[in-house]
Amino acid sequence: MAAERHPARSVRAGAVMLVVLMALALGSGQARAASLIRDAEIEYALRELTRPVATAAGISPGALRVLVINDSALNAFVADGQTVLIHSGLLLRLDRAEEVQAVIAHELAHIANGHLTRRMANLRGAHSAAAMGLVMSMAVAASGNPKAGAGLAMGTSSAAQRAFLSHTRAAEASADQAGARYMARAGIAPQAMVDVLDLFRGQEALSAGRQDPYVRSHPLTADRLRAVKGYATAYADQARENPDAAYWFARAKGKLGAFLQSPRYTLRKVPARDTSSVALMRRAIAYHRTPDPDKALAEMRKLEAARPNDAFVQELKGQILLESRRFGPAVTAYRRAVDLAPSEPLILAGYGRALLALNTPDGNRRALAALEKARDRDPRDPRMLRDLGVAYARAGQNGMASVATAERYAVMGQMKTAALHAERASGMVPRGAPGWLRAQDVLAAAQIAMARK
Prior knowledge:
By secondary structure, the protein is mainly alpha-helical.
């Protein structure tokens, strides 16, 4: 495809292990499918799509994170002044990079226009593992089950949860206008915003239980759609083609679909005659999930030949090898990925996971070093925190193992369990040490959550 003429830049950040994380439990104890998908290739692609829009909005791209929730509902929202959350169902329904950018532009307008100022102060700048658990309870509420969010961490009523995520019609109109302006400044056709709203046209006539969550939190009216069409016409001449955006959208959507949709469906959609790098990746993932590791690795060899210096490719190769229990080759692939993207926390986490799988003294030592680096750069990855706890335990650092475990439960929104492990850690690590301070962060977040019940 045309995007193949625009290879990825030297990747500063990359990882391709698509892992459904942060499984959040309902108040009744039943598992819920709402969860974060931590995949650095997808997150990198979304950063690339966000960058021009954020710059046009006067927001530093480096201060933002755009994360994906594993939920089939069509929805997107701002959780705090730095975090945009998009449901996988919406990403898979969108057809063009510009449509994703329209969604992001609208959500960034809510940030830039100050529509979040009345939201809960303890969710501002949720950098820590514990604070992210509070943000994620809002994500569950937005997925269409506000009672689940209330039962997780915040302890607020379902009405309060809905109020947290909802915008007024005036705020929506303001965000539409500002978002269209950001898109035009960035050279993106605002017509994409019209196309996104067309997905939801007619939803307001449905009962609340049948509406997509996006419509419940972003009221859609005929006047609003008419106004957005006007903006699209007014700014039409400022649009310009951006093949890089199309390329990264294809990678993100292709990977997301390959992991979430049926392997048989993926293989039907990407026949063998399609030799583009995105097709090779999708087929490799589909064969891996079948599972047929030999066919998956055969596709990976073709992909590696086409993109020998792509950290994402090396990380995916490592994942397939690791999950096929080929631990030594997996470590080699992850090591290559780390060499290509040494600062990327998800790649470091995968490398640490592969080293743990060796279960040798040297492997465990190297795993701990890699996982500590990963945690320092991104404390919001529950799977990394689980592996870090294992690495600490194997090193005989049981107090730090309890710290990592406390943080993992906090990120997952399970504050009561997090507090138990944080209390245990507080008595095992030196008072005032970094690990002790991290345990106190978890305890403070748990106290906030319990105080709201």
